[in-house]
Specification:
Layout (H helix, E strand, L loop, with lengths): L2 H10 L26 E2 L8 E8 L3 E11 L4 E4 L17 E5 L12 E10 L11 E5 L29 E5 L14 E4 L2 E2 L1 H8 L9 E4 L16 E5 L5 E9 L10 E5 H12 L2
Antiparallel strand pairs: 1-9, 2-3, 2-5, 3-4, 4-7, 5-6, 6-7, 8-9, 8-12, 10-11, 11-14, 12-13, 13-14
GO molecular function: serine-type endopeptidase activity
InterPro entries: Peptidase_S1_PA, Peptidase_S1_PA_chymotrypsin, Peptidase_S1A, Trypsin_dom, TRYPSIN_HIS, TRYPSIN_SER
Organism: Ignelater luminosus
């Protein structure tokens, strides 16, 4: 097998992707989440969820800054605006650490792996939440089998439309208000997918909603993503029971403002870009 064939196989080995490694019972009903009005997830339910932690060159270690999502044993995705934003532009791999296998960020669970980032690839056309996607390569591959509590999510094979699924879930450790605390335990919220026209109507004054965007979220303000959830996954259930990465949390009204769904980076649109970068 050539090196190129080996890379291809690692990226496309999907028999284990998108499956949970949960080992505990469902938490009690009614626990509210920092993903606005979501609920506490089950430990191991989202084993591809990543916490990206930042060592800022001026302000020191900031801890959890954004979410990410593992797509293979050495590559993860996040939002480009997590790395290049109004506060800073820090595409320097040495400043970032990926924490995998985490659930409760306030407790050492001995399932976590803290792996330095080796390489960061921002989308070349990223600007103002257009092409809001970035790849990060881990400094060493992670084991996705055996007793590991880490898995990769499955990538989509076709474009998701708003009438094709009724089970999509956003996850993250984000805040419950723009100046509130980060969540300790990983939280989740079920969100409906909309036609992009819904988000186009709401955000056209600030961001042009295009084919690379995915519109999802409750319109009544009952739940949604917030600060700190950016870069994390919007995963949707497939017919075979696996979870497919439909989107990456990009932007919204702030924190579940009524009438305003959230906007995600649409993964199916960026599959050619992802594959080209990983296999280059």
């Amino acid at each position: 097998m050539s090196a190129a064939q080996g890379k291809q196989e690692v990226f496309e080995d999907t028999h284990k992707c998108g499956t949970s490694v949960r080992r505990s019972r469902q938490p009690r009903e009614g626990s509210l989440g920092r993903i606005i009005h979501g609920k506490q997830s089950v430990r191991g339910a989202w084993p591809w969820q990543v916490s990206l932690q930042l060592l800022h060159p001026q302000f020191g270690f900031l801890g959890h800054w954004c979410g990410g999502v593992l797509i293979s044993n050495e590559w993860l995705l996040t939002a480009a605006h997590c790395i290049n934003n109004d506060l800073f532009n820090l595409p320097l791999a040495a400043l970032w650490t990926a924490v995998l296998g985490d659930w409760d960020q306030e407790v050492e669970e001995y399932s976590e792996e803290r792996i330095p980032v080796e390489e960061i690839i921002l989308h070349e056309r990223f600007h103002n939440f257009q092409h809001d996607i970035a790849l990060m390569k881990l400094s060493r591959p992670v084991k996705l089998v055996g007793r590991s509590r880490i898995r990769a999510v499955c990538l989509p094979t076709k474009r998701l439309t708003h009438n094709q699924t009724d089970l999509c879930i956003a996850t993250g450790w984000g805040r419950d208000s723009e100046d509130g605390p980060l969540a300790g335990r990983l939280l989740e919220a079920k969100v409906p997918v909309h036609d992009n026209a819904v988000c186009r109507k709401k955000y056209q004054h600030a961001v042009a909603i295009r084919s690379g965007h995915l519109c999802a979220g409750h319109l009544d303000g009952s739940s949604g993503t917030c600060v700190g959830d950016s870069g994390g996954p919007l995963q949707c259930a497939s017919k075979d029971g696996k979870w497919i990465l439909a989107g990456i949390t990009s932007f919204g009204s702030g924190c579940a403002k009524p009438g305003f769904p959230d906007v995600y980076t649409r993964l199916s649109y960026y599959l050619p870009w992802i594959k080209a970068k990983i296999h280059s």
